[in-house]
Design goal:
CATH superfamily of the largest domain: Vaccinia Virus protein VP39
Helix content: 25-40%
Order of helices and strands: EHEHEEHHHEHEEEEHHEEEEEHEHHH
Strand content: 5-15%
Number of helices: 12
CATH topology of the largest domain: Rossmann fold
CATH class of the largest domain: Alpha Beta
Number of strands: 15
Strand order of the largest sheet: 3-2-1-4-5-7-6
CATH architecture of the largest domain: 3-Layer(aba) Sandwich
Radius of gyration: 22 Å
Distance between the termini: 31 Å
Length: 423
Amino acid sequence: MILDLFAGPGGWSRALSVLGARDIGLEWDEWACKTRASAGQLTIRTDVAMYPTWPWVGRTHGLIASPPCQAWSMAGKRLGLVDQPLVHEAVDDLAAGRDTRERLLAACRDERSLLAAEPMRYLHALNTAGEPEWVAMEEVPDVLPLWKHYAAVLRSWGFSVWTGILNAADFGVPQTRRRAILLASRARTAHPPTPTHAQVAEPDSLFGPGRARWVSMAEALGWGATDRPVPTVCAGGGPGGGPEPFPSGSRKTLSDARERGTWTPRPDGIVLQPRRKGAGWAPQHGTRENRTASAPAPTFTTKAHQWSWSLRSNNQANATIRSIEKPAGTLFFGHRANECTWVAEPASAQPEDTAALAVPEPIRITAREAGLLQTFPADYPWAGNKGQQFSQIGNAVPPLLAGHLLAPHLGVTLDPDDFTLAA
């Protein structure tokens, strides 16, 4: 078996299914469990900290763990950093077979901090049977010192281990999401996956294949650079589960929104296809750099060219704002679920045409759009109201990144085209 601790809505599981494998996920959140069930993923709804380890001993080939990041994330109070010495103490104790969690938990400023030590409880039990063969763990960058602590223990047990920070955009995810990664194996030398993308495209050379340009939000969502996001009305979309209203000033009708659904379709004249094998997505008619004079141009209305669109991560003064021609910043939601919005600016090509026009009001990102930017498929069955869906999406591991991390452990070759998003 492959055991997935803190399995969430299925980022690791989605990657495994594309690679031809399955896991069993342990997850506490009700709505994440419902999402996993709808996606056909095996799940035990339980508290990872309370579940016994003996059922897995002698049966576990691989272990995956993405402990909750709220205690450590920059989006929260980061009390995990204050509790870090207690978490390190818990790791040492659990690695030696001593369960001191109750005492240490009482001293923690954030009770979620100690969850980052839970994988060691399972690893210690499995190690008595010479298991697992491999380990993959992921967390926010501030957890890297803890992963290095894990690495020291795992090396003493005979594992080869690599730890470090990876940027999801370097692996074809349309999001510059940086995460602390631990990879360990008893059967092979652990090392990070080879990046497939870069901020600036790199050509093939004598030393190996080149790297494609980072995948933009526009490419992942199937939009042109100036397409306007379509306001939507979603059943169960409001904070309390009711309908989400259109942004004020919108001229879209309810019937139009129902016809379009909850995701903006590709504009007329644009068809997405891979740039090259494993290179992500690009318009059929090419980019501004490679479009020939004879190639038909994508068709947009005159008004479509009046505004360029960006994604604003929240309404705070220091919010990340990225053009849709670039990858998104790190998506995190929580209590700011409804503040991730598309914002418009005058298109540089036509400043004189936009001076007298009212700037379109910000439009909330939809759960489906956010899921696509995490490399979940467009039809992924997110459960719950909008806030519950956003919470799952923000906490998930991007499946495409997970696929790059897991493929070597499974002895298979990852084909990024298998993770095509838009359908």
